[in-house]
Recover the amino acids of this structure.
């Protein structure tokens, strides 16, 4: 280990391989250094991933099973308030488990969601962004579409665009220090048959390690898998899958003018 872990990043590992050189005169030994941080992290992540998935699926099942068992055994002896409390606990477990499974199924079905022959015009983007932001409690959203581009269509289905906006806005809210991000959506024409949609917030700044694995499935915005962060860590992986399946590209980096991140969606377009 060369660099110990920090609050946002894990340790940096080097492997040192030494080789004696008996015929090299004053040079008696060669040492080769090889960065094995990725291998060490992958090994540790696999074990944490298994632990995390077990935790995320088992925890709601325990709540459901415990509540229903008590209701089945002692329900006739409980007050109405007690029955309601155990029923509410069981329902919370069901909703949590459903959410985890829905995340996985949505990620698996990304190709179907992305490609169905439908497209969407840019003139629908402001209303969609405002509507989704309202559902997530994002009060500050600005959308900028250049004049003359309203009727340009992007190669995403309406459902795919909704999903992308939802995942990015939800992340902005979830990881903002006050859970009240200012989100900007800016469209730029980059080519005759392409455009870029920039979505940026004023939340957190990511570490270099987090930027490297930000598109990796089942990875969440925390240094270690704890199983407590909401969701399955598939939001950004789903965004990338949807963009890639229509021939686009996506990048994410920290803002240069302050805290927050920028997500660049590079998408093919065509005129109706």
């Amino acid at each position: 280990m060369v660099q110990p872990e920090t609050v946002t990043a894990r340790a940096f590992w080097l492997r040192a391989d030494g080789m004696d050189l008996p015929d090299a005169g004053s040079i008696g030994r060669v040492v080769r250094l090889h960065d094995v941080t990725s291998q060490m992290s992958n090994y540790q992540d696999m074990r944490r991933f298994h632990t995390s998935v077990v935790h995320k699926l088992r925890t709601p099942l325990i709540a459901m099973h415990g509540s229903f068992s008590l209701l089945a055994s002692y329900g006739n002896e409980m007050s109405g308030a007690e029955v309601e409390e155990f029923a509410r606990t069981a329902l919370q477990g069901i909703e949590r488990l459903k959410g985890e499974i829905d995340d996985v199924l949505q990620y698996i079905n990304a190709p179907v969601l992305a490609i169905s022959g439908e497209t969407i015009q840019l003139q629908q983007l402001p209303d969609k962004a405002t509507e989704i932001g309202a559902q997530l409690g994002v009060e500050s959203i600005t959308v900028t579409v250049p004049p003359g581009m309203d009727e340009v269509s992007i190669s995403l289905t309406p459902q795919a665009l909704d999903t992308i906006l939802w995942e990015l806005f939800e992340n902005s809210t979830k990881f903002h220090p006050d859970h009240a991000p200012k989100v900007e959506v800016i469209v730029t024409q980059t080519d005759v048959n392409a455009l870029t949609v920039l979505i940026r917030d004023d939340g957190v700044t990511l570490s270099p390690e987090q930027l490297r694995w930000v598109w990796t499935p089942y990875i969440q915005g925390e240094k270690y898998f704890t199983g407590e962060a909401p969701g399955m860590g598939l939001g950004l992986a789903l965004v990338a899958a949807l963009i890639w399946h229509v021939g686009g590209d996506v990048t994410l980096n920290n803002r240069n003018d302050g805290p927050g991140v920028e997500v660049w969606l590079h998408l093919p377009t065509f005129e109706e």
The mean pLDDT is 82. The CA atoms of residues 136 and 170 lie 7 Å apart.
